[in-house]
Amino acid sequence: MHARQQDHFPAMEPQPQVHDAATLRSAAxxxxxxxxxxxxxxxxxxxxxxNEIWRGQQCLNLLAPEAPTSPTVRSLLSAExxxxxxxxxxxxxxxxxxxxxxxxxxxxxxxxxxKRALRAEYADHRLCASMIGNLAVYTALTQPxxxxxxxxxxxxxxxxxxxxxPAGVRGLxxxxxxxxxxLEIDLDAFRRAAQQHQxxxxxxxxxxxxxPLPAKEISEIIAPWGGKLFFDxxxxxxxxxGGQFQDPLRExxxxxxxSAGKTWSGPQSGIMAxxxxxxxxxxxxxxxxxxxxxxxxxxxxxxxxxAAEMIEFGQVYMAQIVSNxxxxxxxxxxxxxPVIGASRGYSQTHQVIADVRQxxxxxxxxxxxxxxxxxxxxxxxxxDAASDWDRPSGLRIGSIEVTRLGMRETQMDEIAEFFARVxxxxxxxxxxxxxxxxxxxxxxxxxxxxxNGLPPAA
Length: 458
Ligand SMILES: *Cc1c(COP(=O)(O)O)cnc(C)c1O
Hints:
The structure is a single chain. The chain is an alpha/beta fold and about 450 residues long. The chain has two domains: about 240 residues, Aspartate Aminotransferase, domain 2 (3-Layer(aba) Sandwich); about 130 residues, Aspartate Aminotransferase, domain 1. It has 16 helices and twelve strands. It has a seven-stranded mixed β-sheet, sandwiched between helices. α5 packs parallel to α12, α6 crosses α11 and α12 crosses α15. The protein is globular. The N and C termini lie far apart (about 60 Å). Bound molecules: pyridoxal-5'-phosphate (PLP). Pyridoxal-5'-phosphate binds next to α6. Pfam families: SHMT.
């Protein structure tokens, strides 16, 4: 580094980090090697481009919490409207700032489209993440010290509803929803525990999700003491909108939250919907002014278009996602890769859960597959302890992106074959990777959107 620049950018002493120190060190070296700050900025764009080529064009992305967005959704994310500040509720008097005429149009269109897509009386569009949606629900519907029942992580629960997430931050007393080893809620055990603890809220929020949950039964069990059901449908929101999963708001759930960037296939953020006017003021208050101020109106515009896509294409798109995950699970199992849920038809969602203990465990397998351009994630499965999170036995595989690229059941069989070549036949990953890149080349168009419509028939 030149002496002059050193004056401007004194090298910082390495500090203890939770992030990987080696990765940060190499970023520091990249910056040190730049001739000027413009080059530093160019390094950022170059990394974005590398990802776009690799993950965007050369990989089979099978991460369950990811979805590719349509060209319109993507372009709206960089729209001018995203530079405008608009906090508060919709309408000229409710805002702090003047000049929000068109922002009100965009936001109210978004809200009305969300309500139609989810068949709900109320919706909120201002959540920068579903995580924040869950915090809003706990803020609105509980007080610190209240008891809630939520799903433990090894059975598919999510940190947002546990001690180490928003529920914990709200100071809630968290009691486990009991599960069977087959990943089903043990309703008898639930009834006993619920009667004992009388939870104010029961949260059904599953990151590992294969089958519908007994929402109706649970809402009836907790009704006698005024307990409410909260359905955190982060993963299943698109399936719910598309009518391919259960319909929590019609099965007793007081409120539904979800991620816009999972099966919903919109811009990563959160959505909240409900029907009961009695909780409307509390929920809206928890969003503003409690948890959101400016809320990225570009994202709101993109969300609105994704809701329209859901209304127009959701039913066929989501049905194909479910059919593909079932086909993929069957094809993996036929090749000798154990999969959970065979006795119930494998999956009613976008997910396939494989038990990869015999291949070295989830961490090992996910990294090995990634070297062959097959992107999945390690996952806790029943039998693992919550403390095994870093080296769990399972692998979670999702069918959202490959479906939106126009693939159907036949292609799921071909994808399973790539898995078998890596895990069972131990072919060199470089060879499989080259074949995955060639294979993916045929699938570069996104469907189930207004630009490209439906994919060609099988
Ligand atoms: C992914 C997930 C969340 C968090 O959603 P974000 O949109 O990533 O904030 C919350 N709950 C469950 C069950 C999830 O799987």
